C-alpha cells in the first residue's frame, strides 16, 4: 500500500476533498478501494508480533482501523485541520465517545440546552447514570456558561447552529472561558458542515459530526467522526475506541469518501437555495418569522458573519396559525418531502414539535422557541425555482 495519506503541499478544501487521505493498493486504482475485511494476515509470526507491539505499521483488526475507514478519517483530518480522528458507526456514537472517553464519575459538564434530542439524552441520562453531572444553559449567554462552571467542570458541549431554531453559540467565546477554567470544548458541527465553520480554528478542542447528514449527502449511510489533536486522541479516545467498538463499517466509509468529493458543490448550492428560500418566505403572508443565520434579521447575525463562512443549508420558519397551518403547509408541498433527516440532496421539511422534539416537556420546547407553528427545512439540490414555487404554493394552502 502506497501511504500517500497526507499531501506534502497544503491544498484548498475542494482539492483536499477529492484527493486527501487516498491510499492506493498495488493495483493503482483511481477510485478509493473498498476493503471489506475484518482482519489482516501476516507473512510471519514475527511480523504479527511486531504489528501487535506497534513496532511495525499496518492494520490489525477492523474494529481498531481499516484502510478504507482510515482514508475517510485522513480526508476529514486534512479538511478540518485536526491532528487525528476516529470514524464511528453513527453521529451519536461519535458524540457519546467524544464525551464519555474523557469523563469519569464526579466530573461535571456544562452544555448548551438547545441540543439534538439524543445528544441531550446522552449528556443528561447516560452520563448522569455514570455519575457525571451536567448543567444546561442558554448557549447564547456567555455569562450563563461562566455561572455554571464548578471546580469539577471538565467539558463544555454545544451544537451551533442549533437544531431546529438555528441559534448560534459563540465558539471562540466559550473556548476562551473553557481555557480559563481548565475545561475542554466539544462542538457538534453537523448543522454548519466542515466547510462553513471551523471549530478547531475558533479554539474548540474536539469536533464531532454525524456523517449521515451532509457528508453522505444522499441519504444512504449512517456514520460519524470525532476529530481533535493527536494528543487528545492518544490520551482519551484511542484506547476507548479500540476496546468499546463504535467503529464505522468500511462500506459506509467508502460511501462517505465519495460523498466528500462533492461536498463543496453541494453545500454551496444548498446554501444559495436556502438563502433564497429564507428571503422568499420572509416576504410571504402568513409567515410569522424566518430563522436563517445568513439574514440580517437573525438575532445573532453579527456572530454568524464572524464565525461562519455562509448562512447554512437549513432554515426554520414559523407559521401564523400554529400546528394546523404548519401541517397544511407541509401537506401542500410537492417537491419538498416530509422527513426528519437533513443534509440530503432531497429537500426535507420537519415539524419538530410533533416529531424530533416531541419528547421534550412543553415548557422546555417553549424555552427553546419550538412553537407548534415552527417548521425546519433542510434544503436539497432541486432546481431553486422549483423550491421557491413549492413554498409559495404551500403558503397559500396554509392560509386557507
Ligand atoms: C443527526 C444528528 C446527530 C446524530 O447523528 P446520527 O448519525 O443520526 O446518529 C447528532 N447531532 C446532530 C446535530 C444531528 O443533526
Characterization of the model:
- Helix content is 41%, strand content 14%.
- It contains 15 helices and twelve strands.
- Helix 7 (171-181) links the parallel strand 4 (153-159) and strand 5 (184-188).
- The chain has helices at 13-19, 45-53, 67-80, 91-100, 117-129, 142-148, 171-181, 193-196, 230-244, 250-261, 263-283, 301-307, 322-332, 362-367, 384-399; strands spanning 84-88, 108-112, 133-137, 153-159, 184-188, 206-210, 224-228, 287-291, 314-319, 337-338, 348-350, 374-378.
- It has two domains: 3-261, 3-Layer(aba) Sandwich (Aspartate Aminotransferase, domain 2), CATH 3.40.640; 264-398, Aspartate Aminotransferase, domain 1.
- Helix 1 (13-19) packs antiparallel against helix 3.
- The chain has 400 residues and is an alpha/beta fold.
- The longest helix has 21 residues, at 263-283.
- Bound molecules: pyridoxal-5'-phosphate (PLP).
- Residues 90-92, 95, 116, 118-119, 159, 163, 188, 190-191, 210, 212-213, 222, 224 line the site of pyridoxal-5'-phosphate (PLP).
Amino acid at each position: 500500500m502506497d501511504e500517500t495519506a497526507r499531501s506534502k503541499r497544503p491544498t484548498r478544501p475542494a482539492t483536499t476533498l477529492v484527493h486527501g487521505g487516498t491510499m492506493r493498493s498495488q493495483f493503482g486504482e483511481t477510485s478509493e478501494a473498498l476493503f471489506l475485511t475484518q482482519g489482516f494476515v501476516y507473512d510471519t509470526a514475527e511480523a504479527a508480533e511486531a504489528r501487535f507491539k506497534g513496532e511495525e505499521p499496518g492494520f490489525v483488526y477492523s474494529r481498531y482501523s481499516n484502510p478504507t475507514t482510515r482514508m475517510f478519517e485522513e480526508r476529514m483530518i486534512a479538511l478540518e485541520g485536526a491532528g487525528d480522528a476516529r470514524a464511528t458507526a453513527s453521529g451519536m456514537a461519535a458524540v457519546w465517545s467524544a464525551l464519555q472517553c474523557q469523563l469519569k464519575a464526579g466530573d461535571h459538564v456544562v452544555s448548551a440546552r438547545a441540543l439534538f434530542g439524543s445528544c441531550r439524552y446522552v449528556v443528561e441520562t447516560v452520563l448522569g447514570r455514570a455519575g457525571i453531572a451536567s448543567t444546561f444553559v442558554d448557549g447564547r449567554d456567555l455569562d450563563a456558561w461562566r455561572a455554571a462552571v464548578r471546580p469539577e467542570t471538565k467539558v463544555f458541549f454545544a451544537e451551533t447552529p442549533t437544531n431546529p431554531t438555528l441559534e448560534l453559540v459563540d465558539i471562540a467565546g466559550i473556548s476562551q472561558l473553557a481555557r480559563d477554567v481548565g475545561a475542554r470544548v466539544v462542538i457538534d458541527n453537523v448543522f454548519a458542515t466542515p466547510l462553513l465553520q471551523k471549530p478547531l480554528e475558533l479554539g474548540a478542542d474536539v469536533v464531532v459530526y454525524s456523517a449521515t447528514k451532509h457528508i453522505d449527502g444522499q441519504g444512504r449511510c449512517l456514520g460519524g467522526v470525532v476529530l481533535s489533536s493527536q494528543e487528545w486522541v492518544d490520551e482519551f479516545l484511542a484506547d476507548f475506541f479500540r476496546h468499546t467498538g463504535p467503529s464505522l463499517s468500511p462500506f459506509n466509509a467508502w460511501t462517505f469518501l465519495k460523498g466528500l468529493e462533492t461536498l463543496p458543490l453541494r453545500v454551496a448550492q444548498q446554501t444559495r437555495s436556502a438563502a433564497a428560500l429564507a428571503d422568499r418566505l420572509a416576504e410571504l403572508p402568513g409567515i410569522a418569522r424566518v430563522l436563517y443565520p445568513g439574514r440580517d434579521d437573525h438575532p445573532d447575525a453579527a456572530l454568524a458573519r464572524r464565525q461562519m463562512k455562509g448562512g447554512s443549508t437549513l432554515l426554520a420558519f414559523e407559521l401564523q396559525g400554529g400546528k394546523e397551518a404548519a401541517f397544511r403547509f407541509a401537506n401542500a408541498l410537492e417537491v419538498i418531502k416530509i422527513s426528519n433527516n437533513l443534509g440530503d440532496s432531497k429537500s426535507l421539511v420537519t415539524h419538530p414539535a410533533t416529531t424530533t422534539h416531541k419528547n421534550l416537556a412543553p415548557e422546555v420546547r417553549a424555552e427553546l422557541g419550538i412553537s407548534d407553528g415552527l417548521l425546519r427545512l433542510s434544503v436539497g439540490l432541486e432546481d431553486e425555482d422549483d423550491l421557491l414555487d413549492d413554498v409559495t404554493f404551500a403558503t397559500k394552502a396554509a392560509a386557507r
